[in-house]
Amino acid sequence: MKNQKAREKIQQALYDLIESGNQLSDIKVTTLCQKAGINRSTFYDNYLDIYDLADRLKVYLVDSYLTFLKNDQEKSILSLLRHMSQYPETYRLFFWFNLDDQLTKNHEKIKQFAYQNSRLKNPYQHLFFISGLNAVIKQWLANGCQKSPEEIADLLEHNLAKLSE
């Protein structure tokens, strides 16, 4: 339990440093530990270095996303957006680590929505829509989810309809 709390503090400190504009290569263990309010030895009890922390955090983010998908009864884009609005920090990190390909690769509804949708016959249209979907979600998270998940889902539906005309 003690290690779990330390890891949470470390992850929160990393998130805060990233949000304040730091690149991973610029973050030092000492700075991270000061921000987290822990000793360097506590950091090294849990991680080898900053890159080990980042790698483990990426695995955690993808696992959390996949767990959500597995347990999501609705399996809709709207339910994903609602989940993202509940955990915006997690998903901002998700995009910061360039894990957005996991969204489309693992979300059946998104694949069905874009890839298997017969209205989008051209593969470039699929790519355009998926890139746009990721960009809209990323910007929505960056703006603090000011619009509701329903508004974003409607925007995506509307753009898909326009694209397939």
TrEMBL record:
Transmembrane segments: none annotated. This is Transcriptional regulator TetR C-terminal Firmicutes type domain-containing protein. InterPro entries: Homeodomain-like_sf (IPR009057), HTH-type_Tx_Regulator (IPR050624), TetR_C_Firmicutes (IPR039532). Residues 116-158 form the Transcriptional regulator TetR C-terminal Firmicutes type domain. It comes from Holzapfeliella floricola DSM 23037 = JCM 16512. Coiled coil: none annotated. Pfam families: TetR_C_8.
